Amino acid sequence: MSRRSRTNSDAVTQRPAYGSDYPRRRSQNPAESQPQGWRATKRSSKLGHKVRRQMKAERLKSSVRDGARATRNTVIATLQVIGMAVGGVLAVLVVLFVLALGVNAGARWLAEREAREEASPEAQAEKAEENLVVIGKNGDGSAEFLAVRLDEEGEQILGIGIPSGAFMEVPGQGFERVGDSLSGGPGVSLAAISNYLSIPFEHYVVVDVAIYQDAMTNQSLRTVMENVQETDLSEEDRARIAGFIEGVKGERTALVPLPVRPIDLGGETFFEPQRDQIADLLLQWWGVRLGAEDTSVRVILYNGSGTPGIAGEAAQQVIAAGLRVVDTKNADRFDYDTTLIVVQSGETSHGELVQAALGVGEIVEKSSEQEVADVIVIIGRDYQPAAPSEQ
Predict the structure, then answer these.
(1) Residue 275 above 80 pLDDT?
(2) CATH number at residue 234
(3) Cα separation of 56 and 68, whole Å?
(4) Which end of the chain, N or C, is less packed with Cβ atoms under 10 Å?
(5) Domain boundary pick from 225, 260, 292
(6) Whether pTM exceeds 0.70
């Protein structure tokens, strides 16, 4: 073998066998550091999990805190909105309540003023301008009555006939036949009819009952003004009314009897007026609504002075003032020096209306559960009846 061949052979013999030894030596060196790196990696992994868990917990806590804070803020904001809304509603209610009080007070004030204006002598006289009572006088002193409206603007004559036996409140006589009211004078009859119909009548003409019956039968008043026995009209007014009646056509006159229901009391026949059956006529002819008297001031008058007929005199003045008298009678005694006006229901102004009508009276408020009257008047010795021309 040549030298070169030995040299190459030795080189081959001495060259490390990398194919077999290298992997074992390589695997031994990393093997020495592998446990340390694995443990570090494991420790690092555990620490990472712990950190991540802590971070997750912190995020959860933060999320819960944020949610709670948001919920709290939302609740507070909602409560504030509700509070403002409730406060606004309460403020509106308070304003509405105050306005309602003001409106009610204003309405009461207007109603009282209107009542005073309507009860004034001027207003009553204006209402009574077209009204006239035709009194058909019987031979026994009783009478039949025809309540008439002379509507010059509408060129028509409208009237309601009231029989003598009709029962109604007669001032100074109580609940009696209206035909007997003439015994106290035409003024008592006018007051009784005005009080019953809630229509003011201030003037009258007296004719024989035959003329009255002729007028009702023929639906004409033309013979009435030609046969007047007594009246409170001036000559000028008589001529004016007669001329108006003459010019009204027959079909423009309507005279109807008051519906009544006969009642036998102790063998004597009376008639109960059926006012509700003429409700439409009262509304259309005079503008009076059925039941309107319920809104009027209702008055009971007692004679507390002992002067005969004084309650009837006072009743005429009260009725002339537009108030409604529901009864007149004697008081429990006759030694009242001062007239007492006892307001039992309604406003104090009701007592003032009565006081204005009578010209005297001490107003006393004393509530009562009775529903018959609003004001009770006890006539004292200080009351002086008005002169006939002033009633």
Answers:
(1) no
(2) 3.30.420.590
(3) 18
(4) N
(5) 292
(6) no
